[in-house]
Amino acid sequence: MPVTEAERTALPLAASYLIQQDWPAYSAEQHAIWSELTRRRMAQLQEHACAEYLEGMDTLQIQLDQMPDFARINTLLTPRTGWQLTAVSGFMPGEAFFEMLAARQFPTTTWIRSRDSLDYTPEPDIFHDVFGHVPMHAHPVFADFLQQYGEVCLGLTGSPEKLERIGRLFWYTVEFGVIRQNGRLKLYGSGLISSHGESNYVLRAESGDGGPEIRDFNLDQVLGQEFLVSEMQKVLYAIDSFEQIYEAAHEAERRQKEFDAQRAGLEAEAAENDLTRARRDAAAAELASALVPGDACPVCGSREHPGGAHQAKALTIAMAERAVAATKRAVKAAEQALADATRAAAMACVASPKM
Ligand SMILES: [Fe+2]
After folding, report:
1. Ligand 1 center–CA 5 separation, angstroms
2. How does pLDDT run across 129-178, given as a tens digit for each residue?
3. What phi, psi does 318 have (nearest 5°)?
4. Which active-site residues does the annotation give?
């Protein structure tokens, strides 16, 4: 069944990447590779994955012995958290990816690695996407966090530096997140869940045998912590609950709105100053245009008036005043936006995540 026009229309930025999963077309070898991958990982994850991940595996009935069927998983996932797996053709540009997250549609690849690269694929495959990511989407707070993250990023698509910063929140949570549960370090990031090598390395930190430095989750630190995709992580951030990252995504959005409103206010103020100056110049020009050569100026008394009359054509007082009024309205709107952002932030602080 092809992707429908309605599905493409609902996701205009991602439309050209949408495909259908052809589950019956998977070969016996592909099912066997999936089975091998899940078998190798589950032994470790039963002990070291966080409780929410293991619950998600159960809730969504993700099968260990055959390739996942998106339509079947969606019948269990969508009624629970509103999320769905949506098949995509592969790598997507940021804005298309964020559009899908904001719509609670998880862009999911349909291909699986070959048997000779069971341990590592440079590009995410269906094992990373479904086995690594999807069980957490059944958790309501994590589900809300991920959508919020998509919305924040969608508003930043014109600002690569800001996207890079906020991308670190995704990296240190969704991809490489760890959580403390019952005094133990547990895994929830998909890059850890789906990789034996990455998990072994991280779990060494728990036994005091090397591994990354584990710090308490801190939004400012996370946003400022650069990472290399190609290396084992030197530092990871442990959360105590998923509410922490839910609140962090809202805090990131609040800061962004406040920053935008402040910048709009400053720009409007600068424009108002420019126009006030222009209005003064125009007033002087109009005065100058009325001067008669040889007569005394009513302001300064001079009988010489070099060049003043010509300036009057450039800008009339009425035009300048209209512009000043428009700018004042813009300043007011910016102030209102700032007040709204501040109020929203205050509400976000007191609101508890949906359970
Ligand atoms: Fe991932």
Report:
1. 28
2. 999 999 999 999 999 999 999 999 999 988 999 999 999 999 999 999 99
3. -60, -45
4. 128, 133, 175, 194
